[in-house]
Design goal:
- The complex is a heterodimer.
- Chain A is mostly beta strands.
- In chain A, 0% of the residues lie in helices and 54% in strands.
- Chain A is built from no helices and 11 strands.
- Chain B is built from no helices and 12 strands.
- The chains are: A mainly beta, B mainly beta.
- Chains A and B meet through strand 4, strand 5 and strand 10 of A and strand 5, strand 6 and strand 11 of B.
């Protein structure tokens, strides 16, 4: 069974731009969570989607948004990028979020 | 507030030596507990998990962890470390009744040949 895939793997943007990251979960998994990982803050929970509904959200500004499609694929969007948004963005999928999460390789976003 | 503490930011051990990585959580009830490992530039890989039952849990790559309710701890152990174990290790909890994981800040393991 294929693992969680994330595209693109690397991205360079400039301040003020917006970006969309994509995550394809493991087949059959309906829960997708997103995390931001930085050296200073560690892994911070962004949001979790299940069956196209956002069930939980972390403490991030409204510039961070996401959505999930009927095939469970998920996207997250960051608008008006700031330098501090440079991070590794990780996606994780599970059958349900009471189950084990399996992580993708991440998207490395650099904001210049 | 709920939290996960990994008190050791860096640990260095010699190859073949034993290893223990500490994890403490702060939560009123027993959460689901996990240990993940992350190699440079990679995502997180699950090592083991505890939901209920036997408090000593076996995982992949020869790792084990013990849940101690009285100490709110879930320490990861390995009897003999290999050079390939050098990575960053994260303890995580899933709060029952929520859909949110909380991760510790990680422990970076260095293995000396």
């Amino acid at each position: 069974k294929a693992g969680v895939t994330q595209t693109p793997r690397y991205l360079i943007k400039t301040r003020g731009q917006q970006v969309t990251l994509s995550c394809s979960p493991i087949s059959g998994h309906r829960s997708v969570s997103w995390y931001q990982q930085t050296p200073g803050q560690g892994l911070q929970f962004l949001f979790e989607y299940f069956s196209e509904t956002q069930r939980n959200k972390g403490n991030f500004p409204g510039r961070f948004s996401g959505r999930q499609f009927s095939n469970s694929r998920s996207e997250m969007n960051v608008s008006t990028l700031e330098l501090g948004d440079s991070a590794l963005y990780l996606c994780a999928s599970s059958l349900d979020n009471t189950d084990t999460q399996y992580f993708g390789p991440g998207t490395r976003l650099t904001v210049l | 507030a709920q939290s996960v503490t990994q008190p050791d930011i860096h640990i260095t051990v010699s190859e073949g030596a034993s290893l223990e990585l500490r994890c403490n959580y702060s939560y009123g009830a027993t959460p689901y507990l996990f240990w993940y490992v992350q190699s440079p530039g990679q995502g997180l890989q699950l090592l083991l998990k505890y939901f209920s039952g036997d408090t000593l849990v076996q995982g992949i790559k020869g790792f084990e962890a013990e849940f101690k309710r009285s100490q709110s701890s879930f320490n990861l152990r390995k009897p003999s470390v290999h050079w390939s174990d050098a990575a960053e290790y994260f303890c995580a909890v899933l709060l029952s009744g929520t859909y949110k994981y909380i991760f510790g800040t990680g422990t970076r393991l260095k293995v000396l040949a």
